[in-house]
């Protein structure tokens, strides 16, 4: 009998095929106490060496198949095996009499928990990388087998979640789609699905466990649902939709480098969210109009000392050059008490999402912000550079930031450094207070970039990474849309602009609503650029505005999504 399960959309498209449950053979650490610390240390070292050799071999085998940023995951895992902070925690446990297994488990889990507590979903998802390398070492300690072999026919991969090393063992020619019980749109399975161009639905919850191995599934990665044992007519209609989707995707990619204009001639910038030089190169190839969000945290994490100014200058300049003169919006460091950097100790916080992060951390450690701003300004000469500050919630904060920024500019000029001529300074709108008081922030900034991930969870009191409440954290909720509209209304007639850099920008049903609300720039995952541009071209601004006004009058996100589904541009 046909039944539908709802999850979160993670990669668009439609797929049909048999379910294949990925069964992970996790090691079981039965020994908790070690008899001799030296022996346990030697056992762990041997397991780490075997794990490192495996990772190196895996990297070589996959070198021709995976892009550099995917291969970099395994390089990072090799470095993680000897991370000084991690090994210090292990050593403390071994000295206390723990076994190699127990010491390793405790240290790895603490490290992963720190990453999982980060406010940025991208870095929350990296906790899976830590657990992945941790499990690899444990397998060698316990003598457990590795991942299972795939069937010899195309399947829909079903799992509780997937780790990086597990996804690369899957034959892309046999993967029709991914479905996971947990995870989120930034989890590794979702990232791989988007890269392979196959649908993915995540955070389905425990209901997924009722799906039998081999059951016929229909997956809709746009709607975020799966149909179990669908009726023949449903399958026939789905096949028609799949054929149309593949044709539309090919057409979108063919014109991805052209501007995105509505049918009545309104230009909308479609930029990319990136977290590395490789991401920037991919964004350029996919036709992005620029970078709408450069996450600079990759320069600061997983190291024992903050990057030097010269190192930052080199990295930022390479990123600006990779975009070929297109605008690049750089977010200053966004970490906090939820993940203290080894060289920036901070006391633990009971609720880090409401704690010292973003601009609050920068004010407590101005030298870190000064160094980053100096590097950005030096690297940005000759490029259209945009700098924005995260987690601003009070006018007094943006006033301090702007004065601090002007002081850095003056110091550089006095030292003989030229300053960028095409420069803008903005702030992220992630807190409802910032949205509601946008007109008061306006005199201090050139633009607003709305981070809908945080804005949504703060508005609806729902953590989008928690499967139990993730469905509540829908950015198309009218309460969130009203906040966005308040921001866009504040800039009307000022010559300043508003962008959206959260996941909502790449949610195709949300695109006409956002541009209808007055958003002028959408920043999305690089692979999403062609489809977002194609969606913009289907609508006139008149139609989009009418749709947005109607969306603001709805009672909940489900009603807005129904409204958009029924609306069709002429």
Helix content: 40-55%
So what's the CATH class of the largest domain? Alpha Beta
| Strand adjacency order, main sheet | 1-8-7-3-4-5-6-2
Number of helices, where a helix is a run of at least 4 consecutive DSSP H or I residues: 22
Structural class: alpha/beta
Strand content: 5-15%
Number of domains: 4
Given the C-alpha coordinates, what overall shape results?
globular
What is the second-level CATH architecture of the largest domain? Alpha-Beta Barrel
Mean pLDDT: 86
Q: In angstroms, what is the radius of gyration? A: 24 Å
**Poorly predicted parts:** none
Distance between the termini: 38 Å
How many beta-strand elements? 17
CATH homologous superfamily caption of the largest domain: Phosphoenolpyruvate-binding domains
| CATH topology tier name of the largest domain | TIM Barrel
Please outline the major beta sheet.
8 strands, mixed
Structure report:
- This protein folds into four domains: 126 residues, Glucose Oxidase, domain 1; 106 residues, PtsI, HPr-binding domain (Enzyme I, Chain A, domain 2), CATH 1.10.274.10; 156 residues, Phosphoenolpyruvate-binding domains (TIM Barrel), CATH 3.20.20; 141 residues, TIM Barrel (Alpha-Beta Barrel).
- The protein is globular, with a radius of gyration of 24 Å.
- The chain is built from 22 helices and 17 strands.
- With 570 residues, it is of the alpha/beta class.
- The mean pLDDT is 86.
- The strands form two sheets. An eight-stranded mixed beta sheet has the order 1-8-7-3-4-5-6-2. Strands 10-11-12-13-14-15-16-17 form an eight-stranded parallel β-barrel, surrounded by four helices.
- Helix 11 links the parallel strand 11 and strand 12.
